[in-house]
UniProtKB/TrEMBL annotation:
This is Uncharacterized protein.
């Protein structure tokens, strides 16, 4: 292999490794955020829970489609409209977390896959 081919292969391998490392780092960040969401949800700290859900959204948004964005936007509008009604806010945040977990699963960034998804 000539020097150009060797450099190209090394660069490609380096880019693949970098993408892999970025993916692993993102999965770790998302996992940590879900743990924190659970913590604040159990303590009924709705404001902090919402902030963390927004952080999950920021991790997932780059691979989302328009429907995902509309769903999150709709939930955020519900949140603002009902900000002082804790019971309603709790249900809205449950819905928001469910949407985000589905988005994460659909993107293949964690969660269980159906057997059919793997071709089994």
């Amino acid at each position: 292999m000539n020097n150009y081919g060797k450099r190209y292969t090394e660069q490609t391998n380096s880019e693949n490794l970098s993408e892999f490392n970025d993916a692993i780092a993102q999965l770790q960040r998302i996992g940590n955020l879900w743990e924190q969401c659970h913590y604040f949800r159990r303590r009924a700290n709705l404001q902090q829970w919402n902030v963390l859900l927004d952080s999950v959204w920021l991790e997932l948004i780059q691979d989302c489609d328009d429907d995902d964005e509309k769903n999150i936007s709709g939930v955020n509008k519900e949140y603002l409209k009902n900000k002082l009604k804790r019971d309603i806010i709790y249900q809205i945040l449950i819905k928001k977390e469910s949407i985000l977990r589905k988005i994460q699963k659909d993107q293949g960034k964690g969660g269980k896959k159906k057997k059919d998804d793997d071709g089994l």
